[in-house]
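Entry for adenosine monophosphate complex. Fields follow.
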Amino acid sequence: MTFKSLGLSEALLRAIDKKGYTEPSPIQEKAIPIILERRDVLGAAQTGTGKTAGFTLPLLQILNKGQRLRKRPVRALILTPTRELAAQVHANVKEYGEFVDLRATVIFGGVNAKPQISALRNGIDILVATPGRLLDLHNQRVFSLASVEILVLDEADRMLDMGFARDLKKILSLMPARRQNLLFSATFSKEIKKLANAFLRHPELVEATPENSTAEKVNQKVYLIDKARKTEFLIKLINEGDWKQVLIFTRTKHGANRLAEKLNKKAITAAAIHGNKSQGARTKALGGFKKGEVRVLVATDIAARGLDIPLLPHVINFELPNVPEDYVHRIGRTGRAGASGEALSLVSGEEKEYIRGIEKLLAEKLPREIVAGFEPGPVSQQTERAVQKGNFRKHKPKNKYRGNRRNKRR
Ligand code: AMP
């Protein structure tokens, strides 16, 4: 299969060639022709499958063929849950659209709005945005969504997890009812299905991997380990394996900071990336990691969403997430683009409960290992009681960010 046979124009084929892609990925092969037919799409795909090009390429082709409007009102809106993902999608739109005459810009919170406002006032064909800043600037009447022809919701599951449901509803009401809708999500909960039913019109289902499953090439393993000795064990793994690029997940922002500090003290260059870091600090950390100047990136779940880091060999769950779907997202960072990867989880006695939820979602049992000298210690009676009562699972992801969303971002 070639990109040409999918019906893409010369200008787009040129950009694809420049990127060095020789053939479309499975999701691109399936999604591109359907989108070009102007059908709605429900895409089951996580980052790393090539889904961004899968929706961006046909979107550019449609807008480029369509009628040009003099003032360049927004004709395509791409919504993403996080700033990082918005920036990455925008960068991709610019690359794939290099040889067509369409303007794109990106808006997200946490940075000065002025340059975003002036870009929008100049007229823009494609807008990539996070929901909060989009509504802020729309309320200020900086732009209109009345001419939107194509709407893309990227990582829709994460958008709902972050409490954007109400913002989404509002945004949908600002656009014309007659438009093409593309919804991409890595997992399909009841809420996502409800959202999809609410606004997609006879969508075509496009899948990159089987529902809620992890990529086949990821070798997964659970180390049952003493909670107090996790850092020591991690350092041993990194040093003995001579790992050059490791992504580590912690549950909290403070945990991410603390771990990065400890690693740096042991001469393993590390940077933390989470919602309390400024946009500049996050971009710098990610840049250093990609260039190989920083060996370890310690991230919280939300901060890591959509990060474009190809071919990541090692992903470590320093702590397991209490939301099983987050595990799928985390390990989706490895084993990408045909390369195999390793996803290791360091699990203390208190966290054992979480493994069951994850295994249920994956419908498979994860291999466990106990390393001599790092055996898990006894779980305190208090913790045991909390686990038995189910108190360990009382955090409901859907409500977690509601209300004070900006401050609570992980
Ligand atoms: P995405 O899933 O959109 O985040 O893309 C993951 C990575 O795959 C990005 O680094 C893309 O540049 C790359 N990519 C997308 N499409 C292709 C393709 N057809 N061939 C090779 N790499 C690709």
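NOTE: The longest strand covers residues 218-224.
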